[in-house]
């Protein structure tokens, strides 16, 4: 494996983790919005607004990590 392959694996993994974090958290938030229950939680459990805000922040961080990873791959020319 050459240097380019290792760089792609490293930066690509960084981008993939960010995308998975954003998509998974967004899916949980959309389910909560639709049903009023988070995945794996008991019905009727009250969710504080600070928790919802933290989850939206997590989606934002995941998107930023994904964008940084994709831009790094593009700039390195290993796409």
Question: What's the structural blueprint in terms of helices and strands?
Answer:
Layout: H1 3-35, H2 49-76
Textual characterization of the structure:
The chain has about 80 residues and is mainly alpha-helical. It contains 2 helices and no strands. Helix 1 packs antiparallel against helix 2.
Largest sheet: none
Say how many strands there are: 0
Question: Can you write the helix and strand succession as a string?
Answer: HH
Uncertain stretches of 5 or more adjacent residues? none
Spatial gap, N to C terminus: 16 Å
The fraction of residues assigned to DSSP E strands is under 5%
Q: Mean pLDDT, as a whole number?
A: 88
Q: How many distinct helices?
A: 2
Helix content: over 70%
Question: What overall form do the CA principal axes indicate?
Answer: elongated
| Radius of gyration over C-alpha positions, nearest whole angstrom | 17 Å
Keywords:
single chain, 79 residues, mainly alpha, 2 helices
Give a quick rundown of the structure:
By secondary structure, the protein is mainly alpha-helical. The chain has helices at residues 3-35, 49-76.
């Amino acid at each position: 494996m050459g240097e380019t392959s290792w760089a792609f694996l490293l930066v690509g993994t960084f981008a993939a983790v960010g995308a998975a974090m954003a998509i998974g958290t967004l899916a949980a938030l959309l389910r909560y919005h639709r049903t009023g229950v988070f995945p794996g939680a008991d019905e009727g459990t009250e969710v504080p607004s600070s928790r919802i805000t933290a989850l939206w922040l997590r989606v934002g961080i995941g998107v930023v990590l994904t964008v940084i990873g994709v831009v790094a791959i593009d700039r390195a020319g290993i796409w």
